[in-house]
């Protein structure tokens, strides 16, 4: 049977505590959700951390250490740490997790963009914490910065620490940026692309855009030079991930991207979302890759070479 790499994006930095009582906040909650996602069939956990008292996204290395060490103690799951961090964090804050923990995989954003969360405010009146409203309002005037200079600096740190970048592609021009970085010798093929759809400021989550991005990558990078996955925001998560699997790609699900497991039903944990995409995959003869199989598919250095 064919194998697909399933990633669980555990908590992210988009959703706020008011949006779901089940959103993992503390290191224990984030680690437990990752381990449950592994048991459900996810080979990779994409990890952000949050202030355990307020739920606000945090770059604190000690919080990352708690999560990473807990997950490693229970299973051989691949950890993909964020370098997107939380909106408004400095490049130094975003990058510290790579130099400190030398993970096998880390997210790497392939260009600057508007990153708008502020329309969510139209559906929300009351908040558990004051920072939530301010955080969402802030995104109306936010550029998420990933300049060519910062990308070059980030890649130097990734390469020094043996961490493979998961290249986050939100828009068509970012495929060109990947090709440029390969031509410049800063990225080595095969690269790992993650098409991120449905964020205001990036490409909408629909099949036409996914096909266009994939075909663009085949033309610009060469179809033998990349492995790819998809994640999509909100109600588009399962349809777009299913489409990606049928196209020969991989899939990322999780509460970073969607809080509901079905219409009107909040996911109680990330495992529910993983279980759903695994059920869908199996209907089409696809099996979730184990962490060992995913390491071969993605070309990772191995769990024995991390620093946590």
Describe the 3D structure.
By secondary structure, the protein is of the alpha/beta class. The chain has one domain: Aldolase class I (TIM Barrel), CATH 3.20.20. Helix content is 39%, strand content 19%. It is built from ten helices and 16 strands. The strands form five sheets. It has an eight-stranded parallel β-barrel with strand order 2-3-6-7-10-11-12-13, surrounded by eight helices. A two-stranded parallel ribbon has the order 1-16. The chain has a two-stranded antiparallel ribbon with strand order 4-5. α1 packs parallel to α2 (61-74), α3 packs parallel to α5 and α8 packs parallel to α9. The longest helix is centred in the N-terminal third of the chain and has 14 residues, at 27-40. The radius of gyration is 18 Å and the shape is globular. It starts with a strand and ends in a 10-residue tail after the last helix. The model has no long low-confidence stretch (mean pLDDT 97).
What CATH calls the topology is TIM Barrel
Look at the structure and give the mean pLDDT: 97
The domain tally reads 1
Q: What is the CATH architecture descriptor?
A: Alpha-Beta Barrel
Radius of gyration: 18 Å
> Strand content of the residues, in percent?
15-25%
The end-to-end span amounts to: 34 Å
Query: What is the total tally of β strands?
Result: 16
Compressed to H and E, one letter per element, the order equals: EEHEEEHEHEEHEHEHEHEHEEEHEH
Q: What portion of residues is helical?
A: 25-40%
The shape is globular
Helix count, DSSP H or I runs of 4 or more residues: 10
- What characterizes the major β-sheet? 8 strands, parallel, barrel
Specify the structural class: alpha/beta
The CATH class name reads Alpha Beta
CATH superfamily: Aldolase class I
Main β-sheet, spatial strand arrangement: 2-3-6-7-10-11-12-13
| Residue windows where pLDDT falls under 50 for at least 5 positions | none
